[in-house]
Amino acid sequence: MKEELIEIFFQYREAFASDNEPLGATKGHDVDIMLNVERPYPPLLRRPAYPDSPRAREALESHINELVKLGVLRKVGLNEEVEVTMPAIITWNNDKSRMVGDFRALNTYTIPER
Question: How large a percentage of the chain has pLDDT more than 70?
Fold first, then answer.
């Protein structure tokens, strides 16, 4: 049983984080989010950032820069229009930060796949 589990982990190793690759990833599985509203989207889907402390802002920028570097996110240009925005906050545990996105508004307009 243990050997089978190790074999499965090895077979799908790209999906797991490692020291060299801090974020697991799979390719070929893009997700399309279907909404139950049409453009122009309601103001609830263009949420401003939450106020935060300088320490939280620094941690948030660090997380965003890391995700941009890994190809998970891309920075938006100054004149680029963004139709949907969601705020993110920083939570702290043992002096370590974690970025958390607030997707409650988006979830309200998302059509379930099931």
Answer: 91
